[in-house]
Amino acid sequence: MDFLYEKIAYLRGLADGLDVKADSKEGKLFNALMDVIEEIADGMNDIVEEQDEVNEYLDLLDEDLSTIEEEVFGDMEFDEDDDYDFDFDDEYDDEFDDDYDDDFEEHECNCSEHED
């Protein structure tokens, strides 16, 4: 981020070299623009610092997760190309239905016999 502050200093030097009075319209504009640019650079610097902290934290989490995986799974190897989709086959559904079909009996309704 130092390069950004160097460029801001260069721009400020250019503005000063124009010999524009600070109380003129142009001088007020230059000063306001430089202030905004510096605030943007400060904000970006804060974001970069926070991002570095997040990256360090993620690295620590990754190390902890690796330790946990090693303790839980040990030497187990997983093939990343395998599809671990546990859908049941249609054959299972048919077997399930067949097992319970025998428990039911069909009856015809003779509802008209019971009407008054």
Q: Can you count the helices?
A: 3
Q: What structural category do the secondary elements indicate?
A: mainly alpha
Spatial extent as radius of gyration: 38 Å
Q: Strand-and-helix sequence, N→C?
A: HHH
What would the average pLDDT be, to the nearest integer? 81
Q: What about the largest sheet?
A: none
Give the topology.
Elements: H1 2-17, H2 25-73, H3 90-101
Helix pairs in contact: 1-2
Q: Care to describe what's here?
A:
- With 116 residues, this protein is mainly alpha-helical.
- 66% of the residues lie in helices and 0% in strands.
- It contains 3 helices and no strands.
- The protein starts with a helix and ends in a 15-residue tail after the last helix.
- The mean pLDDT is 81.
What is shown here, in short?
The protein is mainly alpha-helical and 116 residues long. It is built from three helices and no strands.
Notable traits:
elongated, 66% helix, mainly alpha, single chain, 116 residues
